């Protein structure tokens, strides 16, 4: 292992084991237990000790000796888990306690979550502002923002450290997924649960109500659920049979049913009924599914090419992504507006929004077809030449309180703030401008721009 962690410049060839994508950043786990990240870094989500964007993958030096085995991105924060040391690390935007450290401060390099230390954790799920963990015994712990009950604790108070979800006492949970303000779970017995914000039917419970504790989704006859993923406000589930089901918000066709209608309970995606689906991921308003033959399908919102089918038109039914030739996809992850995949040849591809460098190609260009990340791919540089962030230590990390870092400012394109104070609201600590002001018919609570409306005031 020490040899595998030799200096990257001219060092050993490495493979990408897994990838995870956030709102505008991406993180990858490399062989040799190295972790690298790239994209937007304003909130510390890259873990390099600063707030700079990175357009190429950069190794997080603070995690070099932490024996990381998996990584998971939230919208603007990141987690990493070590199986061998039974430690979970988090860093990035800390509002609402989403980092699990007992405060709302941002962290620019990883810090261990004390409340999970020593526990056998088999999965971490991150939403926009909340996180959950499954223990080896199938117990669930949750923390972070909770205004719609997405933590499943029976109340709507934010929680700054991991708390056990009592509703799953005696129920072994197999897999978790987290969306903007809702959460889903699959149990070892194949049952599906949803809780949190339910306005669009994204909980699968047949109505548009919020739930403060997990509610069991009515079983699909003859099916037991095996996998689950969440988009921003929609949910994707895969049965043991390989059949794909979606429900929730479908304004952009992200459910894949050939229409733009919300669905309040799981509906099978008929276009893929003859495919055996083995992996799924949900973006802000788009969805991808991977079948057993290594073929990848995408659908939903496609303004930046994140569906990957060569155009920027929205698609309400699955489209085969043909830009990865003579390779089988083995893993896929969706960010808010971008998508990243790994193939059986050890190559890594990305496409969609690239304005913050989250595609990892060394530029800030959007792409509507998959492009290989040369620095990471086996048929490219295989991680040779990848650089590391300044030396750090995962045991200690600098932190900045939100009050010290940010002042809320108006979007310069909409005129003086004083003229619109009566029209503004906040979401996740950001000032949002209603669509009426912007002349848009889009959902009022969905910010349409990825340009920040927060001004960093100190660092």
UniProtKB/TrEMBL annotation:
<feature type="domain" description="RCC1-like">
    <location>
        <begin position="12"/>
        <end position="276"/>
    </location>
</feature>
<dbReference type="InterPro" id="IPR009091">
    <property type="entry name" value="RCC1/BLIP-II"/>
</dbReference>
<feature type="repeat" description="RCC1">
    <location>
        <begin position="294"/>
        <end position="345"/>
    </location>
</feature>
<dbReference type="InterPro" id="IPR051210">
    <property type="entry name" value="Ub_ligase/GEF_domain"/>
</dbReference>
<keyword id="KW-0677">Repeat</keyword>
<feature type="repeat" description="RCC1">
    <location>
        <begin position="346"/>
        <end position="402"/>
    </location>
</feature>
<feature type="repeat" description="RCC1">
    <location>
        <begin position="242"/>
        <end position="293"/>
    </location>
</feature>
<dbReference type="Pfam" id="PF00415">
    <property type="entry name" value="RCC1"/>
</dbReference>
<feature type="repeat" description="RCC1">
    <location>
        <begin position="138"/>
        <end position="189"/>
    </location>
</feature>
<feature type="repeat" description="RCC1">
    <location>
        <begin position="86"/>
        <end position="137"/>
    </location>
</feature>
<dbReference type="InterPro" id="IPR058923">
    <property type="entry name" value="RCC1-like_dom"/>
</dbReference>
<feature type="repeat" description="RCC1">
    <location>
        <begin position="190"/>
        <end position="241"/>
    </location>
</feature>
<feature type="region of interest" description="Disordered">
    <location>
        <begin position="440"/>
        <end position="459"/>
    </location>
</feature>
<protein>
    <recommendedName>
        <fullName>RCC1-like domain-containing protein</fullName>
    </recommendedName>
</protein>
<dbReference type="InterPro" id="IPR000408">
    <property type="entry name" value="Reg_chr_condens"/>
</dbReference>
<feature type="repeat" description="RCC1">
    <location>
        <begin position="33"/>
        <end position="84"/>
    </location>
</feature>
<dbReference type="Pfam" id="PF25390">
    <property type="entry name" value="WD40_RLD"/>
</dbReference>
């Amino acid at each position: 292992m020490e040899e595998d962690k030799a200096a990257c410049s001219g060092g050993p060839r490495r493979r990408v084991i897994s990838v995870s994508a956030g709102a505008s950043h991406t993180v990858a786990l490399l062989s040799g237990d190295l972790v690298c990240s790239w994209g937007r870094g304003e909130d510390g989500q890259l873990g390099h000790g600063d707030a700079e964007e990175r357009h190429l993958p950069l190794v997080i030096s603070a995690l070099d000796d932490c024996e990381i085995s998996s990584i998971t991105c939230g919208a603007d924060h990141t987690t990493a888990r070590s199986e061998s040391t039974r430690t979970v690390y988090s860093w990035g935007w800390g509002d609402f306690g989403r980092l699990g450290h007992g405060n709302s401060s941002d962290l620019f390099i990883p810090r261990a979550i004390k409340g999970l230390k020593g526990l056998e954790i088999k999965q971490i799920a991150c939403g926009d502002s909340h996180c959950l963990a499954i223990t080896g015994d199938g117990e669930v712990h949750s923390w972070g923002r909770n205004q719609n009950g997405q933590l499943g604790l029976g109340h709507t108070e934010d929680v700054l450290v991991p708390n056990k979800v009592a509703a799953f006492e005696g129920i072994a949970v197999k897999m978790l997924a987290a969306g903007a303000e809702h959460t889903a779970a699959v149990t070892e017995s194949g049952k599906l649960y949803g809780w949190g914000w339910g306005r669009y039917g994204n909980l699968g419970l047949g109505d548009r109500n919020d739930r403060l504790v997990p509610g069991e989704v009515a079983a699909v006859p003859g099916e037991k659920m095996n996998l689950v993923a969440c988009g921003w406000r929609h949910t994707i589930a895969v049965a043991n049979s390989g059949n794909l089901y979606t429900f929730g918000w479908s304004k952009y066709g992200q459910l894949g049913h050939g229409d733009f209608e919300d669905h309040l309970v799981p509906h099978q995606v008929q276009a893929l009924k003859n495919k055996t689906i083995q992996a799924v991921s949900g973006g802000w308003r788009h969805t991808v599914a991977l079948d057993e033959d290594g073929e990848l399908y995408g659908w939903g919102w496609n303004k930046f090419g994140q569906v990957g089918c060569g155009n920027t038109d929205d698609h309400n039914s699955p489209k085969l992504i043909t830009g990865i030739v003579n390779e089988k996809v083995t893993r896929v992850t969706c960010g808010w507006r971008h998508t990243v995949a790994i193939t059986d040849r050890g190559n890594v591809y990305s496409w969609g929004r690239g304005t913050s460098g989250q595609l990892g190609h060394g530029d800030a260009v959007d792409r509507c077809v998959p492009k290989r990340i040369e620095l990471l791919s086996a048929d490219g540089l295989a991680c040779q030449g990848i650089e590391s962030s300044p030396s750090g230590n995962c045991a200690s990390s600098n932190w900045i309180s939100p009050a010290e870092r940010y002042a809320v400012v108006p979007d310069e394109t909409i005129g003086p703030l004083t003229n619109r104070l009566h029209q503004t609201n906040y979401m996740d600590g950001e000032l949002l401008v209603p669509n009426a002001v912007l002349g848009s018919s889009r959902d009022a609570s969905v910010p349409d721009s990825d340009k920040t409306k927060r001004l960093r005031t100190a660092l």
